[in-house]
Amino acid sequence: MKNVIDVKHLTKSYKSNKAVDDLSFAVKEGEILGLLGPNGSGKSTTMNCILSLLKFEAGEIKIFGKEMAPDAYDIKTKIGVVFQDVAVFDELTVYGNIDYFCGLYIEDKAMRAQYVEDALKLVGLEENKSQYPKQLSGGLLRRLNIACGIAHKPKLIFLDEPTVAVDPQSRNNILEGIKKLREDGATVVYTTHYMEEVEILCDRVIILDHGKIIASGTNDELKALAKIEEKVTIEIPDLAPEKLAGFDKIKNVSEVEYDNGILKIVYRKGKNNLIDMMEYLKENKIHYNKIFSERPTLNDVFLELTGKELRD
Amino acid sequence: MTVSKAFWKITAKNIGTIITYSIILIMFGSMNMSGNSTTVEYEAVRPNIVVFNHDEERGITKKFLDYLGENADIAEGYEDDDELKDALFYEQVSVVVDIPENYSQDLTFGRKPELRLRSSAGYVAEVSKAMIRRFVTTAESYAALSLSENVIVEKLDNALKTDVKVEVRGAVDASRYAKATRYFSFANYSILACVITIICLIMTSFNRQTIKKRNLVGGIDIRKMNRILLRNSCIYSALVWLLYVVVGFIVIGAESLLNMHGLLYVSNAFVFCIFATTLAYFISSFVTNTGAVNGIMNVVALGSSFLCGAFVPAEYLPEGVLAFAHVLPSYYYIDANNKIMLLENDNFDAIWPVLLNILIVLCSSVVVVIITNIISKKRQKIA
Questions:
Q1: B48-161, what's its fold?
Q2: Helix residue spans in B165-221 (DSSP H)
Q3: Cβ contacts (< 8 Å) between B219 and chain A: which residues?
Q4: Residue B150 and residue B60: Cα distance in Å, rounded?
């Protein structure tokens, strides 16, 4: 697959603060790339530089093999952008807004009408099309924001934290919509600080911190970077201190925490961890109610790499 | 196309604003017309005159009595002198005329006999005396030519029939155009309100950072988009002008506008619409909140209208206020309307002061455009 975006040695500073520091990456055709990082990590700045909304000191940006510039309208017509902040006209209806932004790319009236209907359907706003933005809930407004960005069926879509402050139903709708866009052949760059979304959506992830790439790869590749294998949680109503101390001695256990009847065990890399733990419970006649195991998350990876949480 | 469509959709959403300010113009512009009309109506007054004739009722004396009868009411029944004095004091009688014996004959021979006149204090008495003087002076003039009594009477007949027509052109024309002046001066408020509100609301929407970013990444040249917005703003302002001209024709009447005065009024209003458009763009260059638009519009439109004499005639305003108003284009717009009202001739020299005012408003527009461009260029430095 050919590269849709090529970013090489991108550097952007705000006065003395380097927001993006020698960043290089590529986005392949048809993939969903997640740009993951805490607030202020440089995700939005990177996106704005790629879109020529910001000037940058150094680096090269190519989209569809051509150098991106503010007046590169042949490239811009193939791009759709959904910004973090809702960008719609309060004075236009839902339909009017989508029609306006679609009209910036599609001149043919009949085609545009069809595209607007498709966008309304994609985000589930068919019944709200004659309403004004102020009449919509926060979640529906976000969906409208997305519809305005993708109505013209772009080949490359940038989504900058589109699910911030959105209710679960709208979030699911938005994520399903993004998957559908990819199925239709679009390449998606998705910036977020919600690791769950990245895990659900993205084929590949770039983790940013302080404007630098600290890790990149598929979900599994990134999780492989974590030193922990799994996290086990067991509900034990009554656990004697001497028996709690015994958990530390089980093979591969790196961390044990017992609080309010919940025991949490973190395992280092290794095999048969659960079997060993079950044997210990049986041998010591420890009664438990529920037990479940989790794989390490991208947050764990980020925590290991930077020493802080993604949402810090 | 899509930008124009959005422009007019937003305008349509705010049509209530245009209607409101148009109604205000019609209501208050019309009210001002009746309240400040400079038309002065005169009511014909026939004075009461008492005549004591001691001459024979023939020749010039008869002519004099006929003349008085035509121009005044001859009061009778005043025999008692005290009663007559009371009547003069209370202005029930304006003048008491005593015609001496042989008055006609003495006048014919150029002896200049004197009429004994007693009058009250009012202006009606003065008018009555002027009327009597007119007869006496005319008769004495003919007598000086050594004409016979009959010829003098005949000449008096013709001379006194000729009305003296006095036309105070300035005053008459001013009253004719007072309506138009009030209407177009009040339009200062409505034009500013309509143009600033709508254009600022639209431009503020388009200039909102989020919308601007989305437009910048869109498939349309942002300069082209700005040109489309400017073109539509100009069309909108022209439509506001046209609307107020049409409303003006209805409210004022076509006869006051279908002439050179009318052409100057509507031209002045057109140039002021251009100024209002540039001012709206200037305000849009620093206002980012649609909520602030109404506040700023009120300050600009109401403020300039009060200071420059759109609501209250400039002659009633304090000197300090007027001195400050001189820096506002609204002052020159309203002043031009006042000057148009007083125009007596259509030649270039007469019109020049009006054109000068219009030119000042036009130059103000250019200055505002330059300042707006400077501000916009500074803001365009996005990174």
A1: abc type-2 transporter like fold (3.40.1710)
A2: 169-207, 209-216
A3: 73, 76-77, 104-105, 152
A4: 8
B-chain residues near A76 (CB < 8 A): 217-219
Its pTM stands at: 0.69
Using alpha carbons, select from A50, A67, A71, A56 the residue that is nearest to residue A21.
A56
Over its length of 383 residues, how does chain B's per-residue pLDDT go in tens digits?
788 999 999 999 888 888 888 888 888 777 655 444 444 444 556 788 998 888 888 888 988 888 888 888 888 888 788 888 888 888 888 889 999 998 888 888 888 888 888 888 777 887 888 888 888 888 888 888 888 888 888 888 888 776 544 444 444 455 678 888 888 998 999 999 999 999 999 999 888 888 888 888 887 888 888 899 999 999 999 999 999 999 988 888 888 788 888 999 999 999 999 999 999 999 998 888 888 888 899 899 889 888 888 887 777 778 888 888 889 999 999 999 988 988 877 788 888 999 999 999 999 999 999 999 888 887 765 43
Let me know: does B305 contact B196? Beta carbons within 8 Å.
no
Determine the Cα angle at A73 with ends A72 and A78, to 5°: 110
The domain limits of chain B are 2-39+169-379, 48-161
Both tokens of B353, joined, read: 């002061």
Provide residues of A within 8 Å CB-CB of chain B. 51-56, 70-71, 73, 76-77, 79, 81, 83, 85-92, 96, 99-105, 107, 148-149, 152
Strand pairing of A17-28 and B48-53? unpaired
Q: Is A309 part of any domain?
A: no
Instruction: Give the integer Cα–Cα distance in Å for B334 and B325.
Output: 11
Q: Cα(A158)–Cα(B168) distance, rounded to whole angstroms? A: 77
Neighbours of B201 (CB within 10 A): 24
Determine contact, residues B289/B209, Cβ cutoff 8 Å. no
Residue A181 near residue A157, CB atoms below 8 Å:
yes
A268: amino acid identity, one letter = R
Domain of A46 in residue numbering reads as 3-223
